[in-house]
């Protein structure tokens, strides 16, 4: 990453580490995604990404294709230029919120099963600690509504 400032390299690394954890991305894919998000240009060519990452062609190609499949990255072409230019999806933040929304839905399904099981089969446990699970469920519902509101607002903004 010798074409980036020290500050940008550090931020790409920080973004990369976070995206590895949150989005379950491979390290190189997470860093490519970070590069795309921080790019001041209207996209990067494949060769530019190679130069920035110092990774092999096959690795960069594999991870770019994965990011394209996940809709985290998109490509476009310029008239008269055969090269593809890659950039972060215009909707990467909205897509991230949609992922969180789905995770919350899955968590709600599981917490409901736990609550119902303990209510029916562990009555004493449910009476003593069931309120904690109900509070957690309430928290998840409020997060779900909040995310839904933000996604709706984002959908109204033209990019």
UniProtKB/TrEMBL annotation:
<keyword id="KW-0804">Transcription</keyword>
<protein>
    <submittedName>
        <fullName>Transcriptional regulator</fullName>
    </submittedName>
</protein>
<keyword id="KW-0805">Transcription regulation</keyword>
<dbReference type="GO" id="GO:0003677">
    <property type="term" value="F:DNA binding"/>
</dbReference>
<keyword id="KW-0238">DNA-binding</keyword>
<dbReference type="InterPro" id="IPR036388">
    <property type="entry name" value="WH-like_DNA-bd_sf"/>
</dbReference>
<dbReference type="InterPro" id="IPR052362">
    <property type="entry name" value="HTH-GbsR_regulator"/>
</dbReference>
<dbReference type="InterPro" id="IPR036390">
    <property type="entry name" value="WH_DNA-bd_sf"/>
</dbReference>
């Amino acid at each position: 990453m010798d074409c980036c400032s020290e500050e940008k390299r550090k931020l790409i690394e920080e973004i990369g580490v976070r995206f590895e954890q949150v989005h379950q991305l491979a390290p190189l894919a997470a860093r490519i995604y970070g590069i795309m998000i921080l790019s001041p240009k209207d996209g990067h060519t494949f060769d530019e990404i190679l130069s920035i990452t110092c990774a092999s062609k096959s690795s960069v190609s594999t991870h770019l294709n994965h990011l394209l499949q996940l809709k985290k990255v998109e490509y476009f072409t310029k008239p008269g230029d055969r090269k593809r230019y890659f950039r972060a999806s215009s909707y990467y933040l909205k897509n991230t919120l949609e992922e969180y929304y789905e995770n919350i839905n899955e968590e709600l399904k599981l917490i409901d099963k736990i609550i119902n099981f303990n209510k029916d089969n562990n009555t004493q446990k449910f009476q003593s600690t069931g309120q904690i699970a109900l509070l957690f469920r309430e928290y998840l519902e409020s997060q779900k509504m909040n995310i839904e509101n933000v996604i709706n607002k984002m959908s109204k903004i033209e990019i």
